[in-house]
Structures are given as C-alpha cells and as structure tokens.
Amino acid sequence: MSGYGDIERKWQQKWSEAKLNEANRDDRPKFMLIFAYPGVTGYLHVGHMRGFSYVDAIGRYKRMTGYNVMFPVGAHATGNGSISLANKIRKELPEWKKDKSKDEGTIGYLLRNGCPEEKLESLTEPMNVVNFFCDVYVNEYWKRFGFLADWRRFTCTLYPDYSKFIQWQFRKLKDADMLTQKPYFAPACPNCGPVAVDASETDISKGGNAENQEYTLLKFRHGDEFLVAATLRPETLYGQVCFWVNPDVEYVRVKVGKETWIVSPEAAKKLAFQKDGIEEIGKIAGKD
To answer: Which residues of the chain does CATH 3.40.50.620 include?
Structure first.
C-alpha cells in the first residue's frame, strides 16, 4: 500500500513543476470554475472532498480539450464561525490542561484530526483559527488530493482585496437596480449578533439540539390598547373561550407603530430584538 503514496507524490510533483495548475494570459479559449468556499470552522470531511473532486475533474477535462482553465480556491471566514470555535477552545483549555488524556469536546476533536497540542493556545484567537484552517485546507487536503488549482490565487473572504471585490459586486448590483432591502428574520444572539445555524441543528429528530420555536401573536382589543398573547397553536383560536391575566405580576405598555400593546416585560424584551421602534411607555399591574 505504501507504493500508492509514492505514486501520488511523483505525479503531483510533475504537475507542480510543469505548472499545469497555473492560468496565465494566452490565446486559448478561457474557462473558469470554482467550488463553494468551505467555512473555516473545522476539518473537512469526505462530503467536502467529493464535491471538490467533481470540480477538479471538470477542470482537467477542459485542459485536455484545449482550454486555458483558471481554477482558484478560497475559504469562507466572515460571520461568527471562527469566533465561536475560538470561544469553545478558550473555555475548554483550562480543564484540558489539568487532564490531557481527555478526548472530548472541541479540543478532543481538533487533536484527533491532527492539530498539534502547541497550536491550541493560539487558536483562542479567531484570526489564528482562520489562518490555521486556511493552511490546513490547502496543504493537508487540496494539494494532497492533487487538485490542479492555481494556488497563487488562493483567497479568504477576510482578505482586504476580497472585501473590495464584494463591494464592487454590490455597487454593480445597485447600479443595475437589483438590490432590495427589507426586513428579514435570521438566527441571532443578543451578545454575538447574527449567527449561522445549520438546519440539521434544529431538527430534533436527527439529533439536533438547537430548539427552534415559532410563536404567533394574538391581539385582543382592550379599549384603545391591545392585550397581546403568544401561542404555538394559532389554529386553536377558533375554540378559545377565555384570556388569562396573572393578577400578581406587572405588565408593560409598549408602543408598536401606532398601537399600544400590553405584554409581559420578557415579551417586550424579545420583541425589541425582532422589530424596530419598540418603545416601553409605562407599566400596569395585572390586577388592574
């Protein structure tokens, strides 16, 4: 079996020396392809590599049929992925230092996949996470797989030139009147801001542990105001016969647009995270 590794290295070296992966200006017809950048939140798996291999195979075929193929690669680092990973490592590091035999959590995952112990301390900083995995993806995955990507063109979504490229794209879209700004609900944390939540994380039946709940607000007119309740079962409204108010708690009045709602303090706080212009204007006891 060791002979296969030797064969891989031999041909990868030949391809590299011949610069088959590099795209420079010439008279051949042009062909560009790229795969979706993986997020720098951990090691790649076989599903990643399968998809990337399709792209590499297409590029090789196009080269063989006379095209000048440009095949750049990159990594997606914007968002909270690297921040979240760095925070997990920082949290686990003190306990791991007490007992390095533990093979659990984020640190256990990193070590099992080949991360050197001496790297862990530096990975408590998000940018170090980004740089570490950019290097891992290129040198431990893509080059070892023999991909004929133009490594000179590697990019990361946090690089200044890439940010300028995105700004250019949006200016072009704006000039073409193709941009629309409107309210949009997305997973978010009051402390960290917008967060990426994979759909599988909210699917309890598949082992997900991020509970996703959708409430419907019901407004009941009370003079010039509205008593507002939340329900998970809006279809049962037709059978509703009463509206419960706790006389022992204090509610708040909030201004929502041109309306005044009476809700719990907790509801007012959550509404403020989801809707602009929520203003608390007073309090009212439940018994009143």
So the answer is: 1-212
Q: Name the packing angle between helices 126-136 and 81-98 (round to 10°).
A: 100
Rounded CA gap, 260 and 151, in Å?
59
d(CA 42, CA 109): 9
CATH code for residues 1-212: 3.40.50.620
Neighbouring C-alpha atoms within 13 Å toward the C-beta of 82: 23
| pTM for this prediction | 0.72
In order of 225, 254, 268, 272, 277, the CA distances from 283 in angstroms are: 13, 9, 11, 16, 18
At 92-107, the pLDDT tens digits run 999 999 888 877 889 9
Q: What is the per-residue pLDDT across 213-272, written as a single tens digit (0 to 9) for each?
A: 788 999 999 999 999 998 999 898 888 888 888 999 999 999 998 999 999 999 999 888
